[in-house]
Amino acid sequence: MGPLDEAMNHSLFDRAERRPLLLYLHRNNTPSTHLFCKNVLCNSEIINYIESNYLVWAWDCTRDANYQR
C-alpha cells in the first residue's frame, strides 16, 4: 500500500473494500520484535484473519529518519 493518507482514504471511502485500517509500526531495535514477527505475524491463522478483516499499512521505524516522520 502507498502513503498513509492513501491507505486512510482507501479504508474509509472505498465502498467495495471498506475495512478498518490496521497500522503496523516496526522497529528492529527492540528485543521482542523478532519474536513478535516470528510467533505472531508469521502465524497463518493470524495472517488470514488480518487479510480478511483489515487493510494493513506498515511503517518501518528502524531508521531514525523514518522514526522522526
Main sheet overview:
2 strands, parallel
What is the helix/strand order? HEHHEH
Shape: flat
CATH topology, by name, is Glutaredoxin
CATH architecture verdict = 3-Layer(aba) Sandwich
Helical stretch count?
4
- Widest sheet: strand order? 1-2
Instruction: Please report the total strand number as a whole number.
Output: 2
Query: What low-confidence regions span 5 or more consecutive residues with pLDDT below 50?
Result: none
The assigned structural class equals alpha+beta
CATH superfamily: Glutaredoxin
What is the averaged pLDDT score?
A: 87
Overall radius of gyration: 14 Å
Helical percentage: 40-55%
What is the total domain count?
1
Can you lay out the helices and strands and say which pair or pack?
Elements: H1 4-13, E1 21-26, H2 33-41, H3 44-53, E2 55-60, H4 64-68
Parallel strand pairs: 1-2
